[in-house]
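Quick review question:
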């Protein structure tokens, strides 16, 4: 089944009116799709780094604007990470994220295989999909089982989380991972699930 989330955003009206004014006053026809190319434009990131985020969905609050100044994102992925981390729960990981981003060579992983799944977020579990990939990689989960795990932690289903804890630790130890490390990795994913 198709699920649609439809948002009414004032900024979309402002963008549309701006494009109409540019067309009327300067004779330049810019489409909404032309603006998508600017997502990866250095000038756009420079503006975010300076705190020029008024009217930018999810970036315009005072706290988020200050965080973007500290983060100084250089890619759309870093902006996305910032939006994901700037919520109750993961807020505590922002200082670690910022430190790890500066000192990427000093980021440590409980198991070397975690690096390929957490490197882009500087060692911090930021997305549910990372938990899915970790379960597949370390505990031999199937893709459907990893999705069940994602759903369990995302929906905070305690009974299912307990079931997955046993499955994960057993799968990881059978694959050669030390049991204490498997427990610690699961614990980190479980903690992430509290705010996922």
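Suggested answer, residue by residue:
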């Amino acid at each position: 089944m198709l699920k649609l989330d439809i948002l009414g955003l004032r900024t979309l009206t402002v963008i549309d009116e701006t494009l109409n004014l540019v067309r009327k006053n300067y004779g330049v026809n810019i489409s909404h799709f032309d603006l998508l190319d600017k997502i990866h434009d250095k000038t756009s990131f420079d503006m975010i780094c300076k705190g020029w985020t008024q009217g930018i969905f999810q970036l315009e609050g005072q706290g988020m604007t200050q965080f973007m100044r500290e983060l100084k994102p250089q890619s759309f992925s870093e902006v996305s990470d910032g939006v994901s981390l700037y919520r109750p729960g993961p807020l505590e990981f922002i200082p670690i994220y910022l430190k790890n981003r500066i000192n990427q060579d000093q980021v440590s992983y409980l198991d070397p295989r975690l690096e390929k799944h957490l490197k882009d977020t500087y060692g911090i579990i930021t997305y549910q999909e990372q938990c899915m990939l970790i379960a597949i990689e370390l505990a031999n989960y199937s893709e459907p089982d990893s999705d069940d795990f994602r759903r369990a932690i995302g929906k905070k289903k305690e009974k299912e989380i307990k079931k997955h804890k046993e499955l994960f630790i057993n799968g990881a130890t059978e694959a050669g991972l030390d049991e204490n490390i498997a427990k610690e990795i699961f614990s980190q994913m479980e903690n992430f699930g509290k705010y996922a």
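Why it works: Residues 115-193 form one domain. The two ends are 23 Å apart (CA to CA).
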